[in-house]
Please model this.
Amino acid sequence: MSKPVLAVFDLDHTLTSGRSLESAFLLFLCRRRVVSLRALLLSALFYLKKVWRDPVTASKRNKLYLKGTARRDAEQWVRDFLVEEGDGFLAREGERLVRQHKGLGHITILVTGSPELLVGPLLHRRELPFDRVYSTSLEITDGFFTGGILGTHFYGNEKAALVGRLAAELGADLGQSYCYADSKSDLAMMSQFGHPVAVNSDKALRRTAVERQWEILDLA
Model:
């Protein structure tokens, strides 16, 4: 019996149309003036404090813009955001790739550092056939966001480690499996696959993809 084949996808700049899901959401909140000035200032101060020593934490793990926000309010903001932008947010060719792999019987997996608060509703709206979704959970206490992360933030080596665990759990053949991503931070994950594909790649990933003769895709 042949081993399962995985098709693993990053989200931001890979399946999205040139934008980060969370940055687009934050811009939407600022335009609507619903996020508090205090939370924005906390987020900005945290960024300035951390950016030189730990730029990943300063930017990608910085969720203080939601600090003190009620969960029900944030969920309504997400619904409003997706009504305004949701149908055009994912690249059509990216959606086609996901459905194509699903049709081939591959196990489709999304691994992203974006918050589950946004990822779940977006995928549901587009009815994308992912078998498994791994995104970042935000900490909530008494119904309010704390501004912190709960559990793993899937970025860089955390993505690579997750893929290793999944391959072992599912008995998958990574040599026959596919991985789609856009950033040099995804290199450790992509290097485990027989079919890594650089999608809308940054310069560092594109250079590596050319050197290693990986497939390169530029999706609209």
Summary: The first strand starts at residue 6 and ends at 9. Residues 6-217 form a domain with the Rossmann fold fold (CATH 3.40.50.1000). The CA atoms of residues 106 and 212 lie 24 Å apart.
